[in-house]
Amino acid sequence: MPDTSHHDAFVEFERVQKSYDGIQLVVKDLNLTMPKGEFLTMLGPSGSGKTTCLMMLAGFETATHGDIRLDGRPINNIPPHKRGIGMVFQNYALFPHMTISENLSFPLEVRKIGKSDREAKVKRALDMVEMGAFGGRRPAQLSGGQQQRIALARALVFEPELVLMDEPLGALDKQLREKMQFEITHLAHRLGITVVYVTHDQTEALTMSDRVAVFDDGRIQQLAPPDELYEKPQNSFVAQFIGENNTLEGTIREMNGDRCVVQLNNGDLIDAMPVNVSQVGERTRVSIRPERVEFNKDRLQEGVHTLKAEVLEFIYMGDIFRTRLKVAGNDEFVIKTRNAPDQVRLEPGAQIEIGWLPEDCRALDAPN
Amino acid sequence: MSDATAEPDKISGPTPDNALRAGDRADDGPVLAADGTPLKRSLSRALRAQKLRALALIAPLLIFVLVSFIAPIFDMLFRSVENQIVGETLPRTVVALADYDATSDELPRDEVFEAAYYDIFIAAERKEHTRLGSRLNYEQTGSSSLFRKSGRGIDDIGEVYQDQFEDLDENWDEARPWAELMGDPDWIAAQDAWGGEGRMPRFELRDGISDLLPRTAETYQIFARFMQTEEGESPLEEEPWTVVHTALYQDLLAGDVSGYTGPRADMLVAADALVESPGFETVVFRDAFEEIDEDWLNPEIWQTIKTYSPTYTSGYFLNSIDMQKTPEGPALRDEDERIYGLLFQRTLWMSMIITFSCILLGYPIAYLLSNLPMRTANLLMILVLLPFWTSLLVRTSAWKVMLQQQGVINDVLVWLGMVADDGRLVMINNQFGTIVAMTHILLPFMILPMYSVMSTIPPSYVRAAKSLGATNWTTFWRVYFPQSVPGIGAGSILVFILSIGYYITPEIVGGTSGIFISNRIAYHISSSLNWGLAAALGTILLVVVLVLYWAYDRIVGIDNVKLGG
């Protein structure tokens, strides 16, 4: 068997499979390599296998098949408490019968670290999350956001190189969540720790991560930095799952390298960039981001195909306008325009012509 | 609709706006509700309706519990201090004993014997003397038979006088002359006219007879009314008790009837002359009592009566802590008479062992149940609950079958050759049997609260501890166990309080060394009929439980106890 491990790999999943019942695979053939210091997010709908992967990495679940390596060492048979991986849980999991300081000093105590050292580290960790004054309180006396900070400090206080976070912000309200996203990212980069972060919130994944692994059906559908994930989805699941997305279905008519012409179901032709289609005559689903659709003829490239559209609804959203159109039989086609002084507000019932840059329109696999 | 046209700010009277204005004006005054009343009063009025409705909803159960549970318990507990029987049965004796020094080893004065004669005679007629005997028998052995014997022999005293009066004049043994002498003429007429329907006309003493013959009048009135109410007989047809003759003798001896001119004056004057005559035979009460039973000349019985004469007594409580009331004050019983201290100690000690065994056996099961998938856990829970659906007697009897010397366990051990046939283990009718059977019976009460607490401990705590580097043992001991303590506490309180008052199982498998205080209480309730002592023991048990409960609340905090959810 060839050695597929990378020398700069810190966390590695190699051909990992997991089944709970012996009938169905929850994780199917997972391969993943993470360098040290990376912030990687596992994103996916519930039941996609992302949390199972995290639990296998933490040691609470064992892989049915395959190897998991940490810093080059296989860890399949190492019990969780010897892996030295910090972990933050969705419900914080702060021990309710201990004070905040006792919670933080727990991982140090079990590592038999001396009392004075312990106190110094606990203080440093509390200061790091700006909770220095709360050491004597009990978890129940703190707000959700404060508890989450303490949980973070506790996962970091014993200076692990890898920290796992299982939907840590899921229980917080929107505003606090955004603030904490920012804080966690900064802390991780400042400390240079490697983070595996699990969430089902795509905004969180995009804003926080160096790379995002999109999970579905037990497989990684795409592993890429956020911008690439958003702008260059590899398949229609990713395109659908990340951000808002317009889709039209049709058949490939012409292939010219990185350009192709797609004939939509109603016969109209559009330009697109082939992503995972290769042959003329193949069924495809094209995906266009709402903000990349253009209806001002002056701004369209010459010679490109355009589509006729009817304005169905105009929604004022403050910073942007959201306009719903009927395009090629699809009446859920949305375009977003910035609320600029010269921006046109489309009236419902208006007939317009829309187009886009061919590279923004991605011809993906057609779902069955 | 006229308000709509009027300017709102010019409306006077209670409007919301005006109330707000009033509230603004009176900054330091009470906050006012919209209609101008103080907010507090308005609020309490609104809440009162809610409270009344809540009260109405629980009222049926509350009344039921009060009538059928709380009231009987308090009535029962009250018996532990209640002691009216002595004062009610021997009223004259108690008064006469007032200045008797119970600490001296002397007999009381003759007046006390005289009072006792009247009291015991009347009590014997009312058949109350045996009850009093049983009551005093708790305090002094032999009292019961003494009183029973006295009830039979007490007639002899009066018969001496009765015979002599009768020899003088036959009329002294007739009902009618007595009634005419003692009774009100109006009453006699009414009694004669009474046809046997409805209530008899109530006996009334004749005017002045009480001054002339005080003792006789009193005893005759008691006799007459007793005949009317208890026996349903007319005093005009019943010759009086001999105690009346004794009273007559005493009255004639003490007073002067020469001036008497009322009915049957000749009879009375003749009797007076007889009494004064030198040949008249008299009885000394003390000697008569001695004749009935020599025990009456033992000062102890008088000391006991004197000690227990008050309406309320601490005697039962002293008895239940192995002490007794003596004329000198409370004193510890002799070593060989002490039993309740030992029983209380044993009850507490064995309850503690049972509670501890339940924790040891129940904790792993509760832990397993709370960590299994729902379906499996529910299935196993049925097994835990199965004993609940089996009769307590069946389960206890099953242990009898298992543990006895010819029982299953011994048979198997003998068959395996682990014990010799003549050396079969004694596992029943002792403390061991009680502990085993009660641990089994009370185990579900430990498992259920533990389970309900453990199932609320999120598995993420254990995972968090492990991810922080704790070994399995440290995780359990430092993180899981402290959070399961409220369940242990709740289970322990439940099991301990249940076992401290357990009755059936110790009764069946306890033998003599394995019985609890509750078995003794049951004995006093149903066999010895010493309800006062049973009530005192029960009260002490109740107080012990409450004190333990209080101590638990102070140490662990009752808020930390979770019986569910």
TrEMBL record, chain A:
GO annotations of cellular component type: ATP-binding cassette (ABC) transporter complex
EC number in record: 7.6.2.11
Catalytic activity: ATP + H2O + polyamine-[polyamine-binding protein]Side 1 = ADP + phosphate + polyamineSide 2 + [polyamine-binding protein]Side 1
Keywords from the UniProt entry: ATP-binding, Cell membrane, Membrane, Nucleotide-binding, Translocase, Transport
Source domain of life: Bacteria
GO molecular function terms listed in the Swiss-Prot or TrEMBL record: ABC-type polyamine transporter activity; ATP binding; ATP hydrolysis activity
InterPro entries in the record: AAA+_ATPase, ABC_SmlMolc_Importer, ABC_transporter-like_ATP-bd, ABC_transporter-like_CS, Mo/tungstate-bd_C_term_dom, P-loop_NTPase, PotA-like, Transp-assoc_OB_typ2
PROSITE patterns from the UniProt entry: ABC_TRANSPORTER_1 (PS00211), ABC_TRANSPORTER_2 (PS50893)
Residue stretches making up the ABC transporter domain: 11-242
Family: Belongs to the ABC transporter superfamily. Spermidine/putrescine importer (TC 3.A.1.11.1) family.
Subunit structure: The complex is composed of two ATP-binding proteins (PotA), two transmembrane proteins (PotB and PotC) and a solute-binding protein (PotD).
Family matches, as NCBIfam families: potA
Summary of the function given for this chain in its UniProt record: Part of the ABC transporter complex PotABCD involved in spermidine/putrescine import. Responsible for energy coupling to the transport system.
The protein's name in its UniProt record: Spermidine/putrescine import ATP-binding protein PotA
Source organism of the structure: Marivita hallyeonensis
Lineage: Bacteria, Pseudomonadati, Pseudomonadota, Alphaproteobacteria, Rhodobacterales
UniProtKB/TrEMBL annotation, chain B:
Key word Cell membrane present: yes
Region (Disordered): 1-27
Record GO biological process: transmembrane transport
Superkingdom, taxonomy of origin: Bacteria
First-listed, main subcellular location of the protein, grouped into a coarse class: membrane
Keywords: Cell membrane, Membrane, Transmembrane, Transmembrane helix, Transport
GO cellular component, as recorded: plasma membrane
Subcellular compartments: Cell membrane
Membrane topology, from the record: Multi-pass membrane protein
Ranges of residues in domain ABC transmembrane type-1: 344-552
Protein name: Putative spermidine/putrescine transport system permease protein
Organism: Marivita hallyeonensis
The organism's taxonomic lineage, starting at the top: Bacteria, Pseudomonadati, Pseudomonadota, Alphaproteobacteria, Rhodobacterales
